[in-house]
Each structure stands twice: as C-alpha cells, then as structure tokens.
Amino acid sequence: MSGAVVEITRTKEGETDTVARAAYEHPLPVRLCHWLNAISLFVMVGSGLQIFRAFPSFGAKIPQKDLIDWPKSFAIGGWLGGALQWHLTFMWIYVATGLIYLGYQIFSGNYRQVLFTRCDLPGVWPMVKHYFFFGPKPPVTEAYNPLQKQAYTTAIGLGVISVLTGFAVWKPVQFSWLAWLMGGFHWARIWHFVTMWAILGFVFGHLIMVALHGWSNFVSMLTGWKKNPEY
Amino acid sequence: MEPKDDKPRTDAAASGEPAPGKAQGEAGADRVKPVEAEVAEAKPLRLEKPTTTRWKIGPATTGPATTGPAKSNPAKTGPIDQRKFAQMSRRELLKISPVLALGAFAIPRFQESLLKKGLGFSDWASARLFRQGHLAPTFSDTELTPFEKFPINGYDVADPGVIFESWTLTVTGLVRKPGDYKLEQIQALQPYRQNTRHICVEGWDVIGRFGGARLSDFLNMIGADTKARFITVACADDYYESLDMATALHPQTLLCYEMYDRPLTREHGAPLRLNVPTKVGYKQPKYLTDLKVTNVLDKVGYWEDQGYSSFYGL
After folding, report:
1. Domain tally for chain A?
2. In chain A, whose CA is at the least distance from the CA of B138?
3. End-to-end alpha carbon distance in chain B
4. How far apart are the CA of B165 and the nearest CA of chain A, in angstroms?
C-alpha cells in the first residue's frame, strides 16, 4: 500500500472538492520500530558513553592514556554499574526492534522503498548538489530519493555492525570467532566505539533533514500518512 | 529508474509545461487533472486550493513534473473525505502509542526494578550462551602483557596481610569432605598453566599467564555435589564472590597459585585466587579463605550486590 497517492476531499453543499493529496508511506511495524529503536539508540549511546568513562582509552591500562574526558552530564546511568544496567537492558529492545524491522521489510517487500541499489547510484550526486545549493532539485518520484536510500541503507548496516561489535565486546569468549573477525577483543571495542560515532553522524544529518522538510514529513513517521507528497 | 526519471520531462514537453512565472492555480489544475479524470469523470473540477507544497518551491525547481498521478493507483484507493482522513490519521497515531510504555523507565519508582529485570534477562541469556566445552582463546608467550604491566585491582587493600604459614582454605556446604585444606593439597592436584585474556568490567584487558589446579579437580577431591547450583568464596579482605556450577566446572577455571610461572605475589592475591577466563575480573577474587558449595545464594558478590551483573560471563 505504501507509496499510493490518494486524494483528500471535502464535501460541502453537495459539492466535492479535492483539498489535498496524501500517501501512506510508513506501515505500522516500521513506525513502531522506528520510535522504539530511536529511544533505545538514545539510551545505548548515553549509557555506552558512561561505560566508556570507566576506561576512556583503547591502549594499555599501565600506563593509561585517556582519550577524552567525557562529561558525566552527557551520559546515562551515573556510574559504571548503573550504565551497564541500562546498556544490557536496552540492547534487547535495540536488537529486537532491529530484527522485527528487518524481518518485516524483507517479508513484506517494503524494503524496496528504502534499499539502496545500483539503479539509485546516478541519482545520488544530483541530490547532493541540490542540498548544497549548486544544483536544481531533481524530480521526486518516490518516497525516498537516491541519497536518502543511500543514507538509510548505510544506517541500517551500521546498526547491524553496532550489534555485532557489541556482542563481540560482551561475549568475547562465547563469540570468540566474532571477536577474532574484528581483530580481537581490543579491536572489537574500538569498532564498537567508531560505529557509535558513525551512527551519531547519521542521526545528526537525519535530524537536520527532518527539520528542513517540514511538519507533514515529520507527521508521516507518526501516522504513516504524508500529506501532499512531492510525487 | 531511468525511464521514470525521463518521463516527467517528456510529459512536461508534450503538455506544454507551465512557464516558471505562470500562475500557481493553473499549474495545480494541470497536474491534478489526470487523477481526477480517472476517479470521477463526471464530477466537476473545482480546484481553488491546490495545497501541494511543490508550488512553494518556485521557479528554481525543474518544474512541476506529473510523476505523482502516473505512480499512484487511484483505482484501488479512491478519494478520502478529509474528516475520514483526520480520523484515520488519529487512529494510526494511537497505534504507535505502545512506544510510550518505554516511558516507565523514566519513572523513578519503576526504574530500578525494570533495570534489574533487564539485567536479570541479560544474565539469563548469558547462562544459556555459556558452553562448558568452549574454551577461551589462549595466546602465545610473546603476546603476554609484561608482568609489571598487569594491573593490580583491589577493592580495599593491596595486601590484607595473610599469614601464609597458617593459611588454609575452609571448605563447607554440600561436600562429602568438608574441612580446612592446605595449599600443598591443592598444589598436589594436576597443575595447569594457561595464557588467557583477563578482561575488566571497566573495559581494559591484559593477557596473563596463570597456573594452578582446576577447580573441577578440587571439587572432585572434596567430594562436592556438582549438581548444586553455586560455589561461593570468601576472601581475606572481606571480598566475596559466587560462581555458577557450570563455570566452576569449566576446564579453564583454576584455583590459581601461580602467575607467570612464579608463586602468586601478595598484590595478585597470594596464596590462592580464582582465575576464570570465561568471566570478567571482578568474578576472579584474590586471597581466598573459604569455599562453599550451595544451592542458595544469600549474597551474590561484592560488586553484584551493588548492581553489577551476577553472571557476567564473557
């Protein structure tokens, strides 16, 4: 159903007018997973940074060279034990919503809306040019433009990597092969940290785009319906 | 993709695309017409309010392409009355209200017990993931962290002043041969040496060389009931810990009296400590004095009782 544009009408004194158009862009499972995942991501990052504060380094313990002095006020949990409680609780929500989302997208076929493929490749550069004010706006033909698909597909990939690196850090013995793939426990911890910043980079861009694209676009992630889509 | 991209341009050329300066209302009529015509041909068109956002963008855009109607399928999803649409939108909004349930984590009264349950679930999953036959990775001697750089983490004092001459390990609980065991008795068991990674809950790790007797061999010697659920230990510095039986029986779980092929030093827990490569550091206590086999834990461990994970298996 997603993508189909319908007309919204108003009937007054026997006459029917078309007042707007709308497209159902985001099915319920996608919206639910989006918000649950967004909240759990927020908690995972906040508690993760508090965990990082316990040993803010990737080198040796002796001598310890701290990487950054991350402020406590930008972290969740208050202390290492508290942060681990948040992290080890919300990781299940993070993983579950991720799996439900992926499962739904694949089995419903809705993944076509978001999956970046080779066909989208030529459309990326014109979109970049447009966003940086030196190109015309490419025609809008579907819910997501090629650059958006590229960004979302990357973000989903980063989400998967964040879980895999996380499991390697959490269970470097039971999942020793996973830790080995990443270059050992030490490197798994580094990749987990780097992945977090990459995801935060996506979130930063995503929030700016949401702010720029207006209310109707934002509401579509709440109700599923986007009023007056550009296609 | 390509044909779709091209289509707007050909359409625009054929239908005489409105010039950038053309009035907005007219342009709107041009665009919406095909849909309307398909849906309800008989209905008169009145389009005073082409409230599409497209027109606000202005002449800078490539032009109001007629891609929308081509893509939509009005035959399947006919027009919706605006009141019905508002109602439907509200209903869809309500459907995502379960997300608000996560707000319970923000309520101080529920927060602690919810997080405890979450951590408990993680521990439950950890116990399921633990495989007794799966060994922790071992390393070559060249990969060892130099002994001087092996951190000394005590919770209280670096040396609780154990008197070695009179030291014994007091064994109680579900065992056939309780009593006080001398270090020599533990050292008489088959010794094992292993280069394994020692990981602290804080995040740092070192590779150390540990030597000692298998805890499983010792449990066998004292006639422990290995069907019991836990073993607990107490330490000379009042630290206390517990291990699940599966971990206690793991072949790499050592009653450790040697590090780097030399007798354990006082800072590292002499005369006897636990070395458990399948657990984080806080589950590997030093200066052991008591060992008990039990089915009931009244206390889990020094850090666990303050909120850390009870199982914390790696």
Report:
1. 1
2. A173
3. 48
4. 33
